[in-house]
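Blinded run. Sample ID left blank on purpose so nobody reads anything into the name before looking at the predicted structure. Input follows.
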Amino acid sequence: MSMNVIHFVFLVATVAIALGLGARAGRKTRTAEGFSLGGRSSGAGVVAGGIAGTVIGGAATIGTAQLAYSIGLSGWWFTLGSGIGFLIIGTFYARPLRRSGLETVSQYLARTYGPAAGPIASLASSLGILFSAVASALAAIPMIAAMTGLSPFLSAVAIVVLVVAMVAFGGLRSAGVAGLFKMLVLWITLFAAGGLAVVTLHGLPDFSARFPEMPWFSLFGRGVWQSLGNVFSLIVGIICTQTYIQALYAASDSRTAAVGAYTAAAITIPVGLPSVAVGMAMHVLHPEIAPILALPIYLVEALPAPVAGVAIGGLMLSVVGSIAGLTLGIGTMMSRDIGQAVLGLTRDRDILRLNRACVVAVTIVAAWIALTHLDSYVLDWNYMSMALRGAGLFLPLTLAVFAPGRLPPAWGIGAMAAATLAAVGSKLLPGFAVTPLYAGLATSAAVVGIGLAVAAVRRAQPPVQPRDL
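Blinded prediction complete.
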C-alpha cells in the first residue's frame, strides 16, 4: 500500500477524534456498573452505536471484501444475517431482557436455571466471542503491516494498544460513542468507494465473461446449505451474545432498547454491499494481491488522499471498536459471573479492575491467535464464533425468556453443557462433517426435549396425598 503523509495525517486525526470522543463520554466512569452499562441511561443512538460498532468490524468490511474478491455476492451474508438477527432481537427479546434489570445473559439464565448456569453460560459464550475478536484482529494485522511496514507482531501490538485506549477506561459508553462516530465515517467513505467500484465494473467490456451469474451474483455461491448454515449461525449467535444484550441492558428503558436494535439493523444490513463491490472490482484490477488487502488498497488508490486517510482510519476504528466491544462483553461476564458469583468478589473496585484486566487479556489472546492463522478467511472465524456461542445457549435462553419455569433447571444446565461440548467436538474431530451449530443445536434440542417431556409427565401426575395416621 502506497500511502503518503496526507494519508497518515487524516488517518491519525480520524482515530484521535474517535478516541477523544470515547474518552470524553467515559470520563466519569467510576463504578463497575457504569463501566459495563453506562449507568443504564443510554439513548437509542448509543445503544445502536454499541451494537453496530461491535458487529461492523474487520469481518463486515475487510473480511466481506476478502470473500467477495474470491466469490462475489456471498460476501454480503455477514452484514445481511447480522441485521436480520438485530431485527429479531429487537422484536422479541429486547423488551423482556431490558425489563429484567440484569447485567449479563448468564445472570438471566442463572435466574431461571439456578446458580450453576451462570459460569457455564459465561465460559461457553466467552469462547465464541473470543473467535470473533480473532476475526477482527486477522483483518487488521495485514492492513497495518502493509501500510506501515511494521512486522505482523508489532502490528498486533498496535491493535492491543488501540483497544485499551478505546474501551479499558470508559467502558460501554466510550465504545458506544466512538462506535457512532465510526459508523458515520464508514458509511460516507465506504459508499463513496463502492460507487466508484460499481462504475468500474459497469465499464468492463467483458463483464459477463469475467463474472458469470453463478457464483458471483448468487447469495448461495458457496453452496445452499453452507450459506444457510452461516446465516443461521449469525442469527442464533447474535441473540445469545453478551455484547449485544449488554447494550440492551444499558438502554434507559425497554422501548429504547428495541429502537436501538432496529437502528443497528438499519445501519448494518447495507454496509456490506460497497465492500462486495470493491472486492469484485479488485478481482479485476489487482488479481495478484492477497484478497485480505482488497478493500484498504482500493481505498488508497481510488479516493483522494484526505478522504482515503479518513477511510483507512474508519477501517482501523471498525476493527478496534469491534474487538473493544467483544472483549468488554467477555470482561463483564468474567467479572460478574466468575469474579462475583464464584470467587466472591464484593468490592466494586475489585470487580471493575477484573473487568478491565479481562479486556486487556482477551485482546492479547485474540491477537496472538490471529498471528498464528494469518492465511485463513476472516468470515469463517466469525461464523464459527456465532455457532459456538449460540449452539449451547439459544434454546435454554429462548425458553427462559418466553416460557420461564417450563424446563427444569437440571435439564437447562445439561442442555447448555452438552450442546457446547458437542459444538466444540464437531470442530475438533477430524473428518466430522456436521457443522458446530447443527451439532450443538441438535444436542441441545434432544436434551431440552427430554427435559420438557419429563416435566410434562410430572405435571400430569396427581399430587401425592398424605396418608392418614
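Unblinding after everyone has recorded impressions. DSSP finds 21 helices and no strands in the chain.
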